[in-house]
Amino acid sequence: MSPPSSRRKRPFLRALIVAVVLAVVAAGAWFWWRGSQDASAESAWRTVEVERGDIRVAISATGTLSAISTVTVGSQISGQVTDVLVDFNSQVREGDVLARIDPRTYEAQIEQGAAQVASARASLTQAQAALRNAELDYRRKSDLGSRKLVAQADVDLARAAYDQARAQVASTQAQIRQQTAATESSRVNLERTVIRSPVDGVVLTRTIEPGQTVAASLQAPELFTIAEDLSKMKIELAVDEADIGQVRQGQSVSFTADAFPDRQFRGVVDQVRLAATTVNNVVTYPVVVSVDNGDGTLLPGLTVNAEIEVSNRTDVLKVSNAALRYKPVGGTGTQPAASAVGRGGAGVAEELERVAAALDLNAEQRAAFDAALAAQRQRAEAARGAGGTQGQTRADAGGMPPGAMVVRMGAGGDQDVQALIRKRVLERMQENYAGFTRLLDDSQRKRWDAELASSLSATRATLYRLVEGRREEVPVRIGASDGTSTEIRGAVQAGDEIITGERARR
């Protein structure tokens, strides 16, 4: 039989166990409730804000510095080099003597030619004397032959001797001219024994030494390389084919050289050459960049790492590229071709207002623009009132001609039809604003036409804005991108929350 104290302890232990279990259950319930509250408070979307800032787009490439004009000095004659008067880095002027080749061979040829010319002239004097004698003999016999005092054969022989003497004189005269020309050629070669600088510049390379023999047979040997002016240099960059379409003459270039790691240099795109180069199936195009080297810091042959600034947008609206990649589950992510003029016409209207504000319009021009813009908006309202479809409303608001097809842009779109639609939209927009454009001057009209064409052909995308917990589509025009952020234009403003993804449901 258990003692009384043992029976009294059992209800107490049971009560204690029950209390502990209830406490654990209560704690679990509290943590579950707190987690559910946190989950409900957490948004179902991942978002980024639209920001205002700068976007700089640059293309990276490598190249080599060189002088703008480099002249290779060679020798047109063969011989032994007797003197070399310049060295590497020597400053030279046009006409300065760089080297001399042994002239004795050509001096001897000149003396020999002079002797041959003198001999030929003596032969000419002798031939001329024989010619005079033959002429007199022919005349005498011709006179006697006319009186039948000598045979006709003698007259003919005298005539032949006269012709031969005349031909001998002509032959000797030709020999004199030939020897004179040969002597003049030797004189030219004698002058070529002195190698002179053809330009002002600095000697970059020298490939000869005194005593060395120069052999000029099929081509002139290269003796010196002279850079004309190192205060102006150039870089030949190899730009990938994927980027060459963005490179234009006059764009700014910044570059660095390993020899001067703490300095950054500037240049300007001078030429985009069409001579493509293919190496290991990689196609590149040469881009020539002009560089000011007035302080003489840069050296020919340096390898540089350059960035070509193809776009620099300041104080623009931009959004993370993740927002452009987001598409709702089940969405196509495509935009109709009519959206090139903006949804409901608002996109292009805002852009045209921005362009007009930058044209410095006078009062008459501004009034004409406002009237054209108001007429466009009235057409949009009339289309909505007539019960047109949403797609038709967008098209009419932007000026799309009646009967134009709505084509989905993207991988399956017909590019030819899209181009035709853009052309027709552009023609209708030009017609709608014809009264306004007639009042513009040439520079204003060119800018207006360029901006209008750019707006209609620009790339469009749909962003998804988060408004009070709801997802809202926002069509925007895409501009420059630096790989992280992209410029956007449309019905957005700085601080808008743009969806980049959906959070996993708990």
In brief, what are we looking at here?
With 506 residues, the chain is of the alpha+beta class.
Write structural notes for this entry.
Residues 37-42, 332-346 and 388-413 have low confidence and may be disordered. The protein has helices at residues 4-41, 104-146, 152-191, 321-325, 346-358, 363-385, 390-398, 415-432, 434-437, 442-457, and strands at 45-49, 51-67, 70-74, 79-84, 91-92, 97-101, 194-196, 201-206, 213-214, 222-227, 232-240, 252-257, 260-272, 277-279, 282-292, 303-320, 460-467, 470-481, 485-490, 497-502. With 506 residues, it is of the alpha+beta class. The protein is elongated and about 175 Å long. Helices cover 41% and strands 29% of the residues. It has ten helices and 20 strands. It folds into four domains: 69-101 and 193-226, OB fold (Dihydrolipoamide Acetyltransferase, E2P) (Beta Barrel); 103-192; 227-311, Efflux pump adaptor protein, beta barrel domain (Elongation Factor Tu (Ef-tu), domain 3, Beta Barrel), CATH 2.40.30; 326-458, no CATH class. Strands 2-11-15-13-12-16 form a six-stranded antiparallel barrel. Helix 6 (363-385) runs antiparallel to helix 7.
